[in-house]
Design goal:
This protein is of the alpha/beta class and 256 residues long. It has nine helices and eleven strands. Helices cover 32% and strands 18% of the residues. The structure holds ligand BV8 and zinc ion (ZN). The site of ligand BV8 has 34 residues, from loops.
Amino acid sequence: MPTQIEPALQTELRGRLRTARRVFVLTGAGVSAESGVPTFRGGGQSAVWKGLPFDAISSYRMLQTDLPAVWEWFDYRREQLRDLRPNLAHLTLAAWQEKLPHLCLATQNVDGLHTAAGSRDVHELHGNIWTARCTECGARESLREETNVKGAATGARERPPICRSCGNAMRPDVVLFGEMLPAGVFERAAEGAAACDLCFVVGTSSLVYPAMRLPEIALEAGAYTVEINPEVTPFSALCHATIQGRAGEVLPQLDY
Ligand code: BV8
Ligand code: ZN
């Protein structure tokens, strides 16, 4: 049953979007769910990979102890993503960026689907699964060319890929648990959160920091804050409005 927003709230939010000076949006895995991308915490600490919970395999500790296993995990995720496309949630946010005076979009996702939908200047807080980064010199290389559109490997490189600049091992260019975010990414997103008068938190279980500091900053700056999520989260009670529904159904209903 598609989500129907309560009419008074729909009118309120459309009005706020029409008059907003600066809008800030934080998204999580739920915004990509309707594209077919599995979320992480659907089943709590469910094992997502070879009996390991998500925050164990996507961790700095695992990178230190077993880089090939981390590559296997991200190769698997990239193959899952290979043919997936942005959904109406991504497309609506990209359209809002064209008609709003200012929209700052920060995402916890590494799937690249916001950019694929046409969003510009996306703050990818946790990096991007389609890029490899050298563990030594920091050189980055795209992984998109590694297989053709059918997903068939066209000479996928050795694992871990060897840096073409310095010959050292490369790693997925994503932020793992226990790692700092890339310098400047959080700070630039925080500027957007601190300056906004309307904030949306879409499709996140609201557990991961420092990403979740961003909507807290928006609230502290006095922004009217709305959560869109089928489930209640630890952040729900702090919001001015919560819409329990799927992002791909809710966001288009707020279009003004
Ligand atoms: C750091 C990239 C410091 C990799 C990711 C205790 C308390 C507080 C913090 C911590 C703590 N212990 C440890 C920490 C720090 C830790 C953290 O926050 N842990 C949490 C889990 C407790 N954070 C870190 O480690 C960060 N670094 O703190 O460094 C530091 C200081 C000094 C020296 C060194 C380090 C780094 C965090 C980044 C980790 N990397 N991703 C990868 O993708 O594999 S985080 C990962 O979780 C993803 O990015 C994911 O997006 C993110 C958050 O998850 P969600 O996006 O919320 O996804 P989830 O599945 O959980 O939820 C989906 C939601 O969608 C659900 O609510 C569901 O209801 C909803 N939904 C479903 N369908 C829909 C929908 N919503 C809308 N529409 C739908 N259709
Ligand atoms: Zn290098």
